[in-house]
Amino acid sequence: MSSAEILFKPCVVIPVYNHPHKIAGLVTRLLDFGVPCILVDDGSAAGCAQVLDVIAAENPHVELLRLAQNAGKGVAVCRGLALAHSKGFTHALQVDADGQHDLNDVPAFLARAQRNPLAVISGWRSYDAMPPSRRSGRKLTDFWVCINTLSRAIKDSMCGYRLYPLVPTMQLLARKKIGARMDFDTDILVRLYWQGLPVENIPTRILYQDDIPSHFDIIKDNVRISWMHTRLFFGMLPRIPVLVWRNFSNARRSKTHSA
Fold first, then answer.
1. CATH code of the domain covering residue 175
2. I need a surface site. Which of 48, 89, 232, 249 has the fewest CB within 10 A?
3. Total structural domains in the chain?
4. Are 11 and 38 in contact (CB under 8 A)?
């Protein structure tokens, strides 16, 4: 099936874990773009859960999926993607609930996906705008992603602002368990690339704010991320011939188009 034959029916998936203060405004803004929203309550406390109940009750284009207990961002997003697929949506834009993603970029994500519906459209944050405390981890992950894909096709695997084509994403999730927590974003993006999906990178601004609580566990999540890179590295080894041929073919195609 060519990309021109694929329907385009997008929605937004928002994993929520104890971020009650900005979620209502975020949903309102997203609905202004004409995309329905799926909120995934990842075992939030009562106060946040109540806010989500009100949002879903007041907006017919918002669906609330509630997990009985906190399972992690990766699980919440995957459950949201599965629900979106079951509802007939073709694409899902992942947006964080803390209000740090610049929603002015939503039309750019949607337009790029509509032009290339088989691609993952991934947000790409500038190092310059990133707090110094986050740069070292990002640079280390970028290094390992280049190794594990044998390419520079993925510019920012840790950005949780991206749009997934649901059919190939659900095919991946049906056969592979993806990182459940802060290891999720990189894990799924590398594996989708391995699956043959192109990754298109969109520069985006992140609105870093000190008043937003972080759920990153500096010890547990760093261990998870390190173990994820190890798994991906050993998963890359048998794929070396395919990855090398793919990168060679892409380079040759680009050279032909530019000639």
1. 3.90.550.10
2. 249
3. 1
4. yes
Vertex 178: Cα angle to 174 and 180 (nearest 5): 125
Read off the pTM. 0.89
Strand order in the sheet with 37-42: 62-67, 37-42, 10-16, 91-94, 162-165, 120-125, 199-204
Range of the domain at 86: 3-258
The residue among 145, 151, 118, 156 whose CA lies nearest residue 250 is: 151
Torsion of CA 129, 131, 135, 141, to 10 degrees: -90
**Tens digits of pLDDT across the chain (259 residues):** 444 456 899 999 999 999 998 999 999 999 999 999 999 999 999 999 999 999 999 999 999 999 999 999 999 999 999 999 999 999 999 999 988 899 999 999 999 999 999 999 999 988 776 667 667 777 889 999 999 999 999 999 989 999 999 999 999 999 999 988 888 999 999 999 999 999 999 999 888 765 555 555 666 777 888 888 999 999 999 999 999 999 888 777 766 665 5
